[in-house]
Amino acid sequence: MEEIKILEELRTLIPPLKKEELEQLHRELDADGRAVSPLQVWKQEGVLVDGHHRYAYCQKMGYPFEVRRLPFTGIDAVKNHMILQQLGRRNLDPKEASRLRGMLYNSRKKERGGAREKARGQNVPLKTANKIAEETGVTSRTVKRDAKFAKACDAISTMAEDGDITGEEKDQVMAKPKAQIIMAAKSPERAKKAAKPTKKQPKKEPYKKVVEGFARLDHPQMKKAVSEIDKIWSSQ
């Protein structure tokens, strides 16, 4: 059988399975003694597209597997195919799903930009966000917001690769809410600031807030406040 190539760019494109998901996959493969679902391979290049975890475990255990060879026009088409498959297959973390939708939009928008140049003068509508929204079950506005988030994630990763921030700072930033990640991606300085842990103020009990509020009042103000509270209480 022709050797299957592993392209790191594709292997790391999709978030890895969680420990429990990987263990479940291994149990299923052990029970069947083979990979039931065929692995997908880029026909022209012999590169693995779908089934990296299955392929690795089958190689380790000597289990047989089938291969489905699919034609693609290029690496971007392969990535788009992988992203759509993952969005439709797994219960992804909301932030990870957002990043994948954004990556898909940014990639297709780049492709459509070239298509516009070729179709200039033909008035061809190319509504990328609407198409992706239909395919992934979200709104087009969500897709466009996801595109900004995906670019921010790439920017944070680039900062870490270039040494502008540490790997630990990158992980701390990526654990923040999406809005904070987008702001942090504007500069290494903002990323470093966002990476610092925020100090949480201890939550005060409601009665303590009332006591502290009364302590700030002078005697006439306090009498008026008590009178107002009494009116509210009596009306209940």
Summarize the structure in words.
The protein has 236 residues and is mostly helical. It is 64% helix and 5% strand. Helix 5 crosses helix 7 and helix 7 packs across helix 9. About 3% of the residues have low confidence.
The gist of it:
With 236 residues, this protein is mainly alpha-helical. It has helices at residues 8-11, 19-32, 52-61, 75-89, 94-118, 128-136, 140-162, 167-174, 178-184, 188-195, 206-215, 219-235, and strands at residues 39-42, 47-50, 67-70. The longest helix is centred in the middle third of the chain and has 25 residues, at 94-118.
Q: What gyration radius follows from the Cα positions, in whole Å?
A: 27 Å
Helix and strand content put the structural class at mainly alpha
Give the DSSP E fraction (strand runs of 2 or more residues): 5-15%
Strand order of the largest sheet: 2-1-3
Give, in order, the helices and strands.
HHEEHEHHHHHHHHH
Number of helices: 12
Low-confidence stretches: 121-126
User: What is the strand tally?
Assistant: 3
Main beta sheet: 3 strands, mixed
Terminal CA distance: 81 Å
Report the helical percentage: 55-70%
**Shape verdict:** elongated
Quick check: average pLDDT?
Answer: 87
